Amino acid sequence: MALFLHLNSKGLCTPSGWTDSECFINWLKHFAAFVKPKPNDKHLILLDGHQSHKTLEAVNFARENGIELLTFPPHCTHKLQPLDRTFFISLKSAYNASSDSWMSCHKGRRITSYEVVSIFSKAYVKVATIEKAMLGFSCTGLWPVDADIFTDRDFAPSSLTDEPLPISAEIISQPDEPPCELIGNQNCQPDEPLCELNLGNENCQPDAASNCAYPPTQLTSYSGKYSEGPSASSSQTILNEIIGPFRAATPRVRKRAAEKATLLTVSPFKKRLEEKKISVRRVSNKVGGAASQTTKKKGKER
Asked: If both were cysteines, with which of 55, 90, 140, 194 could 21 make a disulfide (CB 3.0 to 4.6 Å apart)?
């Protein structure tokens, strides 16, 4: 670990391997110890909207120590987060190169957890530069502030979810008799407006002079049934035969309220966290009381 960790670095682990609210609190304390923010000299931290950042303990600590916590809008970190834009991509490439170099020098061996730190340290030292840190803020328009850093093209993918749902879920009825059918009839009937054809019969050659309205070159087939190729209605009918009728998509139901960029250290957000904590406590007390009463009843029955 000495190859990578600086004397003032702080390493934290969790059972799941993912960050949690306890890790974030420890990181905030570490940040405050070195940056030394104060209520009259505030510092701004930009972060994503992960739930581990939105705890009452974190908000209280930030408010007491002159730290403002501002979250990015949801689904925008790939464009707005400096680390994502300039650092993580370079770090991933450097780590892969460092891993390839290690494996070339250690034929037949695989990388284990004991080698990760030394390999990672070489990649980290190579890409962790002041230049990349500054570029991360400028290319996202965070600093210097550039409100026009993104164009309409950057927002184009979001329009995909703005498409309206299918207008109708009704089953499209199929015609009782298709225009032409492939049957055992060997003769083309030119006097009929809708002819019955056997395309395997070479003698059936309708042309412009005949009364057969559907020459073979304009027929589309599926399971022996034919209809006008170019029309949308006939294509819809064929698709219905293959995969069944189209139905309207079921509207998605959000499991939680839509979020937006939020300043976590303002009073309204802090008040919501306090109310949520009180509500959870009440529910917990009710459940605990009900469980104790059930235990008492079972004891009396015995």
From this structure: 55
Confirm whether pTM is higher than 0.85. no
10 vs 29: CA distance, rounded Å? 11
Q: Alpha-carbon distance 279 to 152, whole Å?
A: 43
- For residues 140 and 79, is the Cβ–Cβ distance under 8 A? yes
Cα–Cα dist 100/122, whole Å: 12
Q: What is the pLDDT of residue 297?
A: 60
Q: Which of 241, 224, 125 is nearest to 173 (CA)?
A: 241
Beta strands in 1-158 (DSSP E): 43-47, 67-71
Average of per-residue pLDDT across 220-246: 58
Nearest to 61 by CA among 36, 40, 41, 32: 32
pLDDT, tens digit, 9 for 90 and up, residues 42-71 = 999 999 999 999 999 999 999 999 999 999
Question: Is the separation of the CB atoms in 165 and 251 below 8 Å?
Answer: yes
- Whether the CB-CB separation of 204 and 185 falls below 8 Å is answered with no
Q: What are the pLDDT digits (tens) for 68-88?
A: 999 999 889 899 999 999 999
* CB contact at 8 A, 141 and 147: yes
B/e letters for 122-142, b = 16+ CB within 10 Å, e = fewer, are bbbeebeeeebeeebbeebeb
Q: Torsion over CA of 93, 95, 97 and 98, rounded to 10 degrees?
A: 160
pLDDT band of residue 182 (cuts 50, 70, 90) is: very low
Q: How far apart (Å, rounded) are the C-alpha atoms in residues 26 and 280?
A: 24
Q: Which two tokens stand for residue 161?
A: 């979810």
Q: Is the pLDDT of residue 39 over 50?
A: yes
Distance, in Å, from the CA atom of 63 to the CA atom of 52, rounded to the nearest integer, reads 17
